[in-house]
Amino acid sequence: MTEFLGYERPDGSIGIRNHVVVVSTAPYANDTVKRTADIVENTIPITHPLGRCQTRPDVFQTYRTLLGYATHPNVYGAVVVAHAGEIVDGDELADDTAETGRPSTSINIHDEKGVMNALDAAVDAAQEMVQDASAMQREPHDMSKLTFGINCATSDTTSGLCQHHATAGAVWRLIDQGGRGVFAETPEFFGGEEGLAARAVDEEVEQTILDRVERWDKRLRATGYDVRGAQPTPDNMDGGLTTIEEKSLGALVKSGDGPIQDLVDYGAKIPNESGMYIMDTPGHGAESVTGIGAGGAHFMVISTGQGHTLSNAVMPTIKITGNPGSAERVPEQTDVDVSEALVGDQTLEWATDQLWGEIVDVVNGKLTLSETMGESQFAIHRIGPST
């Protein structure tokens, strides 16, 4: 398949969904945002505990992440709700969104003289956007327009042996058609960083990868926590993994063995050029997936061993497992079960075909299981303390 059916945006990006998002700039606007989304069908609330009393690097990261969602390829338009005069400015966020040609509006609870007036304004704006969005039609576009996000979740001994291979096979199929792939979770490179860096397209990218891994190592050690030689998550240990190095070597399988084009900062836009990219994120799944979504990935494949509820409302998440126990234990969280490639007579190429077939369906409109259940997590990674 060389084409998919998507929605063209004024900025030239192509969406596989046509969402309207309601974005909070600070925790004090969260309730108004959630109430708006409860009232207006087909809207997605973007809420979080940040946007106030943050250091400058965190303000920038919070703003970049929120803007990434307001201008995501899968988003038609955005309603921005602010509480008062916060450090994440609602008017600025709406204006920057409008620069991409998307409809956007900014509502301030104080300026509206209270939450009820603000809610009324937000509902009116969201309702109009949703109705306008519903008139759009899907049209054929080249697969090269797509960006494929990759993440682990509750890895176990089956991950590096089975489902990660299927994920790698699928992402490189898209890259071969001119698309992009992006994987993350920098602390989970520990023990495998030398081999990963050797895949860089040049010495500068190679050194950047090594420097980012070292920075994470120092950052963790500064807390008194030495993650090397340890295993930080009980669910990984339950799945048979023993050290972070063992987990890392398995985790890196999902990126394949092709060249790495570049490493981008958390929540930064993923370049348009075809190839594989790294986003510098923590291993914390919700924060990592949130960052990749902000970067503009159209969809996410979450490769899981033990099963996981991790998902993203704006960026559809396809969950794949090669663990037959997980597929049986959490069927509503398993979009693709490729365990026959591990315990049966099927091959890893068959597993790749199963995942690729699901990807083709999802980018053309099929809902993932997490979408049908309305599940989503949103967590922006923090750099420093609150002030």
TrEMBL record:
Segments passing through the bilayer: none
Domain D-galactarate/Altronate dehydratase C-terminal: 143-385
Sorted UniProt keywords: Hydrolase, Lyase
InterPro entries: GD_AH_C, GD_AH_second, UxaA_altronate/galactarate_dh
Record carries keyword Cytoplasm: no
Annotated family: Belongs to the UxaA family.
Protein name in UniProt: UxaA family hydrolase
